[in-house]
Amino acid sequence: MTQSAPTLRDHLNTDPNCPPALAAALEAVAAVSADISTLIGRGPLGGALGAAVGENTGGDQQKALDVMADDAFAAALAQTPVRWFASEERDAVEELNPAGTLALAIDPLDGSSNIDVNVSIGTIFSIFEAKDDRDASFLRPGTEQIAAGYVVYGPQTAMMLTLGAGVLLFVLDREAGAFRLADAHLTIPAAATEFAINASNYRHWSRPIRAYIDDCIAGDEGPRGKNFNMRWVASLVAETHRIMMRGGVFLYPGDQRKGYERGRLRMVYECAPIALLAEQAGGQATDGCDRILAQTPDRLHARTPFVFGSADKVARVAAYHDLPESEISPLFGKRGLFSA
């Protein structure tokens, strides 16, 4: 990327997949994200950003920056053609611009538990064409998204974006105060030996998930015949960005704990937009078995198990769910389907 690289605005104004209304909404998201990046960069000098201030509708603890980001996005998007606004931090869909034609869902600040430890956090968003009914604008298959993306606030502030025709990577040029195009055809690398999962929950997982992880941990002596590395950042955006850039697979399965039967990630605000990005970059995204984008959430804050990343690895996780019980039970047992 150089200072001559097109800005986000330049690109959106010439992209045939981006009508003016959509461009306006995306530019507003980018502008707020740049402001949030500056605030995060100040750390404790910017105030107690990680201070607990309450709980959201899903029972997750809200941090001060969660609420600040939510308010900032809502205020900016109200000046655009966004009619319906659905946020992880709000109980219900709210109307921003009655004349708007778009419906935007957002996780304003993903990974907020990492604010005080200087780990990458982010923003995830999804955009649909608005319907007259506010809830129906979001309770629909992910295939109907017209745009999706995330912003990761790390050493670089980067925006990953799809308009339904591939994936674009923009990086914030801090001197110019604008996002610039860094990669116009980003794809998830197929060859990778990394998996991301919270291994502390091993005892709660289903047998297929245990079997998959057991075989990865068995390394070159196991049925996979190769060594793997495990990653876990506890920031979905950070995990996603690593996989988009480097390949691998992310797993957040449902498990036996109360409240975790469907995992903890939300379909509308997190999984559907990331699934669209993954597929547009040549990867896959499922609930462990079935394609995420083909599913319709039954409520605004619906949760789902989530597996995404390099296509062959996501497909392999699904295949473990089809194994007979005799193939799953033995620890590090020979699994003929995967011995190669």
Describe the structure.
The protein is of the alpha+beta class. It folds into 2 domains: 8-183, Fructose-1,6-Bisphosphatase, subunit A, domain 1 (Fructose-1,6-Bisphosphatase, Chain A, domain 1, 2-Layer Sandwich), CATH 3.30.540.10; 194-338, 3-Layer(aba) Sandwich (D-Maltodextrin-Binding Protein, domain 2). Helix content is 27%, strand content 22%. The chain has 8 helices and 15 strands. The protein has helices at 8-14, 20-41, 64-77, 207-217, 236-246, 267-280, 311-320, 325-328, and strands at residues 52-55, 61-63, 82-87, 94-95, 102-110, 121-129, 147-153, 157-162, 167-173, 178-183, 194-196, 229-231, 249-252, 284-286, 306-309. The strands form 3 sheets. Strands 4-3-5-6-7-8-9-10 form an 8-stranded mixed sheet, sandwiched between helices. A 5-stranded mixed sheet has the order 12-11-13-15-14, sandwiched between helices. A hairpin with a 4-residue loop joins β9 (167-173) and β10 (178-183). It starts with 7 loop residues before the first helix and ends in a 12-residue tail after the last helix.
